[in-house]
């Protein structure tokens, strides 16, 4: 698969196809998510992952639910308030269901809220039919995808303004093309820099236990021609100490109003190390990922996953004694004091984040 063919969420012929990221890098195959139940499972099992990509997929999922419900009930031409109300209730239930698949990433609930709000507003208009609401939802889902696509290019430009040619860059998890509808978030300036001859030397840590850095980031950066070196998670301190890292770039799944950022487990450790070694730590955060309704990282719900991912998932036989207790949080929260700058599609912001985040979101 060429770099231009990496489209993790593809909607064509009125069908939703997902690049199954659980099979990468060995196999690059697309599978159809024909219902919200199939989409829920794909999100939960990380066939589609990355906060922006999940949001895009969820938008299409809400449309599919609406389309199929209207078809099943044969109410496309209906405009009666009672029928519209029942239709909206079905969409409310669909939103709650999809949101439950992965609670930490705010783009998921943001996208489903956008879809639900569009349906509710349309339903308030006298004479609007269920079929017309379905058509509107398809347009809304497409707008969510396009907005993220455009956002990625803006993130690439803004992020590149912080970096210099030849820099050594450390990144964590996968915040690239595979996680979005475009260039990516944290990896966006690396892809753009490669096109412009920046010659970055990237260190991708493996990102245990699901190995998104090894399986996904290394794969897509190699496709892009970027000079990438894979390291174990516990090697990050050494590469920093040896002077091989000039900046750390990471993504974000939810940023609280004070600038605390939830991202893949292990991110906060890199932030602390970067602070110790005097290395700038940049968190890439589309504005759709900023949650001003959450005061701080303490209020962010952290998803916990099956412990078998730690000792069994990638091994031919278990790598821990039978019956051992496990703790497998999928995310951790980086305290805002460790974040040098936050990169958004609207610009780069710096502390105090409780002020700058509200300003960039257009709030006082």
TrEMBL record:
It comes from the Bacteria. This is Methylthioribose-1-phosphate isomerase. SUPFAM superfamilies: NagB/RpiA/CoA transferase-like. The active site is at residue 253. GO terms for molecular function: S-methyl-5-thioribose-1-phosphate isomerase activity. It comes from Baileyella intestinalis. It is an enzyme of class 5 (isomerase). The record marks 173 as: Transition state stabilizer. Pathway: Amino-acid biosynthesis; L-methionine biosynthesis via salvage pathway; L-methionine from S-methyl-5-thio-alpha-D-ribose 1-phosphate: step 1/6. Keywords: Amino-acid biosynthesis, Isomerase, Methionine biosynthesis. Belongs to the EIF-2B alpha/beta/delta subunits family. MtnA subfamily. Catalyzes the interconversion of methylthioribose-1-phosphate (MTR-1-P) into methylthioribulose-1-phosphate (MTRu-1-P). Its EC number is 5.3.1.23.
């Amino acid at each position: 698969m060429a770099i231009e063919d990496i489209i993790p969420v593809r909607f064509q012929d009125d069908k939703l196809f997902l690049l199954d990221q659980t099979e990468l890098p060995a196999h690059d195959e697309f599978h159809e998510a024909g219902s919200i139940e199939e989409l829920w499972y794909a999100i939960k099992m990380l066939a589609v992952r990355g906060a922006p990509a999940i949001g895009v997929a969820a938008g299409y999922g809400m449309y599919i639910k609406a389309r199929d419900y209207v078809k099943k009930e044969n109410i496309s031409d209906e405009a009666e308030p009672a029928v519209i109300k029942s239709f909206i209730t079905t969409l409310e239930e669909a939103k709650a269901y999809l949101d439950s698949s992965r609670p930490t990433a705010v783009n998921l609930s943001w996208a489903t809220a956008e879809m639900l709000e569009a349906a509710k507003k349309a339903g308030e208009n006298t004479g609007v039919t269920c079929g017309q609401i379905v058509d509107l939802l398809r347009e809304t889902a497409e707008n969510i995808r396009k907005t993220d696509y455009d956002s990625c290019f803006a993130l690439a430009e803004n992020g590149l303004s912080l970096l210099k040619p030849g820099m050594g860059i450390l990144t964590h998890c996968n915040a690239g093309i595979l996680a979005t509808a475009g260039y990516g978030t944290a990896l966006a300036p690396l892809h753009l820099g490669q096109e412009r001859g920046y010659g970055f030397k990237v260190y991708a840590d493996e990102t245990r236990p699901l190995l998104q850095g090894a399986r996904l980031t290394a794969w897509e950066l190699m496709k892009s021609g970027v000079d990438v070196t894979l390291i174990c998670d516990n090697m990050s301190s050494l590469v920093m100490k040896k002077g091989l890292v000039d900046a750390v770039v990471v993504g974000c799944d939810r940023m609280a109003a004070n600038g605390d950022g939830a991202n893949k487990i292990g991110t906060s450790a890199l932030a602390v190390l970067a602070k110790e070694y005097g290395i700038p730590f940049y968190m890439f955060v589309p504005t759709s990922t900023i949650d001003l309704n959450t005061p701080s990282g303490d209020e962010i719900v952290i998803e916990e996953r099956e412990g078998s991912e730690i000792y069994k998932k990638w091994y031919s036989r278990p790598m821990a004694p039978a019956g051992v207790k496990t703790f497998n949080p999928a995310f951790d929260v980086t305290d805002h004091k460790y974040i040098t700058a936050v990169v958004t599609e609207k610009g780069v912001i710096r502390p105090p984040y409780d002020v700058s985040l509200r300003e960039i979101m257009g709030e006082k």
